[in-house]
Automatic annotation (TrEMBL):
Residues 71-119 form a coiled coil. Gene3D superfamilies: Rod shape-determining protein MreC, domain 1, Rod shape-determining protein MreC, domain 2. This is Cell shape-determining protein MreC. Residues 136-283 form the Rod shape-determining protein MreC beta-barrel core domain. PANTHER family: CELL SHAPE-DETERMINING PROTEIN MREC. Keywords: Cell shape, Coiled coil, Membrane, Transmembrane, Transmembrane helix. One of its GO terms (biological process) is regulation of cell shape. The chain crosses the membrane at residues 20-38. Pfam families: MreC (PF04085). One of its GO terms (cellular component) is plasma membrane. Belongs to the MreC family. Involved in formation and maintenance of cell shape. InterPro entries: Cell/Rod_1, Cell/Rod_MreC_2, MreC, MreC_beta-barrel_core.
Amino acid sequence: MKSSNQNSNVKMPFTRRPQLILFILTACCVISMGYYYIKKENIVSVGQVAGAITVPVQKGVNKLGSIFFNFDQERLSKEEAMAKIESLEDENKELKEQMVSYDQKIQEYQDMRELLELKSEYADYDTVGATVIFSDMTGNWFSTFTIDKGTDDGLEVGMNVLSGGGLVGYISDIAKGHAVVTSIINDNVNVSAMQSTTGDACVVTGDLPYMKEHGLLKLQYMDTDFNISRDNVIVTSNISDRYLPGLVIGYAQDVTVDENGLAASGYLKPAADFKHIRNVLVVTTQKQSAE
């Protein structure tokens, strides 16, 4: 019981403190009003006192609100900026894709124009356009490759293949929907050729290692009294058993008489680009049927 009374005695001052504070404030207000009516001059009202307290508080609240508002605005601005950046990145990606598509279309157009020019150049022959779908590339060189046309398109083994303004090779194997082309840069591939204007005979010989290193084929078996100069056009000859006559092969380079003085030889820069073959023109006229 004694302990309980002590606890209650301790708590009472705290329970009465609000009433005491209210009483003191009320008394202050009454005294201030009375003093105001007595003096009516040089008096500081309760409102002024309250204002002196509340105005700084209000300014602090406004300042704090402004800080939070600015922070929120800054956060929104950052979110808007990030959204704008993402939007621009998407647009940039789309533009890049459009540029790639545009470049591809330009390349396709150039390839088709090249084939049409080639077709018009060999208008005496029937031709079929085809696209390269696979290449057994040897050091980035199209030594053997596959096209997307075959027997279903009227093609046959032995037909000549053109690209880039000149002879590429011949069809060496075929199926219904595709055909394999062996190019003239392969080792041991020989093409009976001649100078386009004089008819001086020669043989263009494939040499893949030399082609890789120098980008040239070999010109061989020419007479010592040859009339072939640098950059003369070399075409397939009439005596070729595989290639139609008059197909451009390339351009003569560095023709000289051999050391033994019995023959002349040189090099040939191919008309076709054997590093970049995308589309070809197959001459459907065979050598046997042309004769």
